[in-house]
Design a protein that fits this description.
35% of the residues lie in helices and 19% in strands. By secondary structure, it is α/β, with parallel strands linked by helices.
């Protein structure tokens, strides 16, 4: 796997990002991905008990990753979080250098994140949003196709359609995401013009992830028709079928 502008800019060996998964992108998973040469990404909710202080929890979980001797890793920020400014400040105080943002306009906090010395990567699901993110000064975008797990874009654009159009529409590096689980997906993404990939569900299946083993087993056993999208047109979310 050759180096790309993504791996060079992020200081990693391989242009592979682990998605910042709410609740399950725990410290051990993040450290394992980073120490293997990718970019582990911590979510502020990962590995902490619900109902706590999100800012204090983020400080604690970042320090836990650091104790595991992780190489560079990032933090995922939900831009509509009521304490987003305090979370950004906490990450900055802990020396975080990479921010992955989603769930809001990059106009809101890109400037703040960059003032704190962070590389900003914004997640998009349409060409329009990719252009807007570039205009707001983000360093890279993650183009997320509808095949991915969890909450999806309301426009339901597939990875195969989205990635090459985003690549052709902006000048900054594009990272492909959505339905990518192995080297075949990586090669397909690079053929579409992406300079790296992000994977989420694939890392849930690892031994380091705190997701329940029954869920991991069910996910690994799923076939092509093993998922369903729920949540209607407003909150389309891809989950495993039950039963």
């Amino acid at each position: 796997m050759k180096r790309t502008p993504v791996s060079t800019a992020l200081g990693i060996s391989y242009p592979v990002l682990q998605a910042g998964l709410p609740w399950v992108s725990n410290a051990e998973l993040v450290a394992a991905v980073s120490n293997a040469g990718g970019l582990g990404v911590l979510h502020p909710t990962a590995g902490v008990e619900p109902g706590g202080d999100p800012v204090a929890d983020l400080h604690a979980v970042i320090r836990k990753v650091q104790r595991l001797r992780a190489k560079p890793f990032g933090v995922s920020f939900y831009l509509a979080h009521p304490q987003i400014e305090q979370l950004i400040e906490a990450a900055s105080q802990e020396g975080i250098g990479v921010a992955i943002t989603y769930g809001g306009s990059p106009a809101l906090y890109t400037g703040t994140l960059k003032e704190h010395g962070m590389t900003v990567i914004h997640q998009v699901t349409t060409v329009r949003h990719a252009r807007g993110a570039e205009a707001q000064g983000v360093d890279m975008v993650i183009a997320e196709g509808f095949e991915g797990g969890g909450l999806r874009g309301v426009d339901k654009v597939s990875t195969m359609v989205l990635v090459p159009q985003v690549v052709g529409s902006i000048a900054i590096p594009v990272i492909a995401s959505g339905g990518i689980v192995d080297s075949r997906g990586y090669l397909a993404a690079t053929a579409l013009g992406a300079m790296g990939v992000q994977m989420g569900s694939r890392f849930v299946a690892t031994k380091e992830c705190i997701s329940h083993q029954l869920y991991k087993t069910a996910m690994l056993a799923a076939i092509d028709s093993g998922t369903i999208v729920v949540g209607g047109d407003k909150w389309p979310t891809r989950i495993l079928k039950q039963g």
